[in-house]
Write a structure and sequence with these properties.
Strand content: 15-25%
Order of helices and strands: EHEHEHHHEHEHEEHEEHH
Number of helices: 10
Bound molecules: 5-O-phosphono-beta-D-ribofuranosylamine
Number of strands: 9
Structural class: alpha/beta
Largest sheet: 7 strands, mixed
């Protein structure tokens, strides 16, 4: 981590950087803002012994997120960080100016040309992120998986999670990036009239939905589909993919390969990689219980 982004409360990272947890398994924190069907799929995989990582905590920016209920029912510790509290009013614990300037120089999520306003917003996001990090680090999580978390993260947060050269935050996006970034991947794919939709799992970088792609898969969109059908078929695929990607990371099979003058490429060192991706697309092509069976 570059020293300019360390901030002043680095000491809270007691377990960070110590490698895998005592069990030898990757410790994962999941962040959600909504219903949490991806979280549920991960919980179900874990119960079936098919997740090679431990979900050590689930956090949200919304106390009402149903994902928190799913976590509690599974006995997973939860936490809520109110962004509203940080985005309005005075900040109790100011963010160091040098840290702020360094984060601002790297970030690509806030575009306000008014530097003062942009840095004020950034300061507040960092304050909220410090609270998230305090929970994540207290639980010894080494990887943060975003599963419908609707907040953009700054380089402050990302650099704290980075381990050696491996980015520490992963996101699942409901479109075939770089097509349709943003909050409405399914809707945008459907409205555009695409014949194929896609899912992307990627490392999170300093931009919005721009990070290195770890895995992608596609599903067909039929003429009779409504937008909801597209979303259901896509979510079915998301649930297949996320656990597999986490397992690859847990097995240390995911490599970020820098390329001169270009974006880094992610390589997955699994001899069964092609079969796995093929099985996703094949599964998405079959009539799914979530869509076609529901129609009958
Ligand atoms: C998913 O479509 C995911 O790709 C996107 O947010 C949605 C979350 O759904 N990032 P859920 O809360 O997991 O049901």
């Amino acid at each position: 981590m570059p020293s300019d982004l360390q901030g002043h409360d680095e000491s809270s990272g007691t377990t960070r950087g110590s490698g895998l947890g005592a069990s030898g398994r990757l410790r994962v924190a999941v962040l959600v803002s909504g219903g949490g069907t991806n979280l549920q799929a991960l919980i179900d995989r874990a119960k079936d012994g098919m997740l090679e990582a431990d979900i050590v905590c689930v956090g949200s920016d919304r106390a009402s997120a149903y994902g928190l209920v799913r976590a509690r029912e599974a006995g997973i510790p939860t936490f809520v960080v109110s962004y509203e509290k940080y985005l309005k009013g005075a900040l109790d614990d100011p963010v160091d100016d040098a840290v702020l300037a360094a984060v601002d120089a790297r970030q690509r999520i806030l575009r306000d040309p008014d530097g003062e306003a942009r840095r004020d917003r950034l300061r507040r996001l960092i304050a909220a992120e410090r609270e998230i990090l305090s929970h994540v680090e207290a639980h010894g999580a080494e990887l943060v998986c975003l599963a419908g978390f609707m907040r953009l993260l700054t380089p402050f947060f990302l650099s704290r999670l980075k381990k050696n050269d491996r980015p520490g935050v992963v996101n699942i996006h409901p479109a075939l990036l770089p097509a349709f970034p943003g909050q409405h991947g399914y809707r945008d794919t459907y409205r555009y009239g695409c014949k194929w939709g896609g899912i992307t799992i990627h490392f999170v970088d300093e931009g919005e939905d721009t990070g290195p792609v770890i895995a992608q898969a596609v599903y067909p969109i039929w003429d009779e589909d409504a937008c909801d059908d597209v979303q259901r078929r896509g979510l079915y695929l998301e649930h297949l993919m996320y656990a597999q990607v986490i397992n690859w990371i847990a097995r240390d099979k995911v490599r970020l390969v820098p390329r001169a003058g270009g974006r880094p490429r992610v390589c997955v060192e699994d001899p069964h990689y092609r079969e796995v991706v093929g099985s996703w697309v094949e599964a998405a092509f079959r009539p799914s219980p979530e869509v076609e069976h529901r129609r009958t």
